[in-house]
Amino acid sequence: MNKMEKALHELSEMDDLAAQDSPVHRLHPTAKLLSTIAYIAVVVSFGKYQLGALAPMLLWPVLLFQVSGVSVRTCFYKLRIVLPLVMAVGLFNPFYDRAPMLYLGGVAVSGGVVSMLTLMLKGLLCLMASFLLMATTGIDSLCASLRRLHVPGMLVTLLLLTYRYVGVMTEELAVMTDAYHLRAPGQKGIHVSAWGSFLGQLLLRSMDRAQELYGSMLLRGYHEHFHYAPVRPFALPDGVYTLGCALVFLLLRRVDISQLLGSLLVR
Amino acid sequence: MIEFQHVSFAYEKGRSVIEDLSFRIGDGESVGLIGANGAGKSTVMKLMLGLLAGEGKILVDGSELNRANLSQIRRKLGFVLQNSDNQMFMPTVYEDMMFGPLNYMLSREEAERRVDAVLERLGLQALKHRHNHRISGGEKRMAAIATVLAMEPETILMDEPTSALDPYNRRIVINTIRELGQTKLISSHDLDMILDTCDRVILLSEGRIAADGPAERVLRDRALLEAHHLELPLRLA
């Protein structure tokens, strides 16, 4: 199995995760989608120095990992490529914002370091929440929920096709890299001189395949309504879950739990 | 019934792939569409399904194919693609088979009944919950046929249904095609398979009909086949 085939296998594992059964998996997709959106909105609304106040937001993904049976290790393994990019966002903050903000055992910690850590934690929390949504819902149910929330069909189709397109592109990449290495023995990676034509061919080939794939969907009645996605009515527990999550998130946003606990301990 | 009336199509201006093509396929007919590479076989099928738009008229059961009735016409025509990987886009065989019937607003129970009936008919029950990317090429081809049959189309179009199959799986696909009661249009270079499954053959050459007649007659005509870069089926050689 080459690297690309492994990637393809990993992609299909997301569908496997979504097909598992747990109280989180059984929740209505719309409930999960709305609570995730609320969570991400609250997480990003924290100020850049509110690291302490942000920390308790970690409780929600931890709870979901526990209840859904999705392992934290799987999450970090699957996010291993994108995670460093997100974490790198605030990397330069310590250079720009050097004013001491707090002292930890006599060591001054600058505002830049705090804001960098806040940004990193925000990125991590948002990624974990998105991963949990995908790992417990599945792309088709998610798209069906988006349509139910009146998100334009074109946008939802784009999302669905992008998801499917990743698989198609990876398959084509696997075939092309195999063909390349068979005629370039002993060479590590793809030589710079071939990058242009390689990428061009990859784009053309995967576009052709994506076109066929979309044609196949159309021929089997696809019309942006996702009737085929597993559905059940939005029940009372789903409503309670959504509302409960939203209220807890707002509470965590309004009340600095870390500070509260800290002041209780100091007293 | 499917009818092409003076249909022309070009991918690029001035380079026609299909030129003034007219033919008619009656209900229950089994028609083989043969021709050399680039003769226009796949294009004819895509035009029939409204995936490409050309000049002239295409009629399905008397209704002219247009944007307004595209969905109804596509419901009548099931298309088995040459590359099953492009046909099977859902995670499992079961989900792929449910995709079409549910999109056409069948209840989940009715769709499941259809899926089970088709799987049983084709002897594919063991594939039901298998992942599409973990089944063999032959199984995938059979599953692709199953996804189309689950929609219960009146006509089945197949593009190279036996390509890249080993002799055993090829025979399974041929037997399955023979047992289908629907109207069939099968495009292929596998002339032995065409001889096994079709009563009539249309030979395309440079976008025009070079021959149209009973399969036995057209496929026995060595001079005609060789003039169009084809060879006699092995069984008749």
What does the average pLDDT of chain A come to? 87
Radius of gyration of chain A: 22 Å
Shape of chain A: globular
Estimated share of beta-strand residues of chain A: under 5%
Widest β-sheet, arrangement of strands of chain A: 1-2
Poorly predicted parts of chain B: none
Output the number of helix runs of chain B: 10
Strand order of the main beta sheet of chain B, please? Answer: 6-7-8-3-9-10
Structural commentary:
The complex is a heterodimer of chains A (267) and B (237). With 267 residues, chain A is mainly α. Chain A folds into two domains: 20-137 and 231-260, no CATH class; 138-229, no CATH class. Chain A is 72% helix and 3% strand. Chain A is built from 14 helices and two strands, in the order ααααααααββαααααα. Chain A has helices spanning 3-18, 23-26, 29-45, 51-54, 59-68, 72-78, 82-87, 93-96, 111-137, 139-148, 153-182, 192-219, 236-254, 257-266, and strands at residues 100-104, 107-110. In chain A, strands 1-2 form a two-stranded antiparallel sheet. In chain A, strand 1 (100-104) and strand 2 form a beta hairpin. The longest helix of chain A has 30 residues, at 153-182. Chain A starts with a helix and ends with a helix. The model of chain A has no long low-confidence stretch (mean pLDDT 87). The model of chain B has no long low-confidence stretch (mean pLDDT 92). By secondary structure, chain B is an alpha/beta fold. Chain B has helices at residues 41-48, 70-76, 84-87, 93-103, 108-122, 137-149, 167-179, 191-197, 215-220, 222-227; strands at residues 2-12, 15-25, 30-34, 55-60, 63-64, 77-80, 155-159, 183-187, 200-205, 208-214. Chain B is globular. In chain B, the strands form two sheets. Chain B has a six-stranded mixed sheet, with helices on both faces. Chain B has a four-stranded antiparallel sheet with strand order 2-1-4-5, covered by helices on one side. At the A-B interface, helix 1 and helix 12 of A face helix 2, strand 6, helix 3 and helix 4 of B.
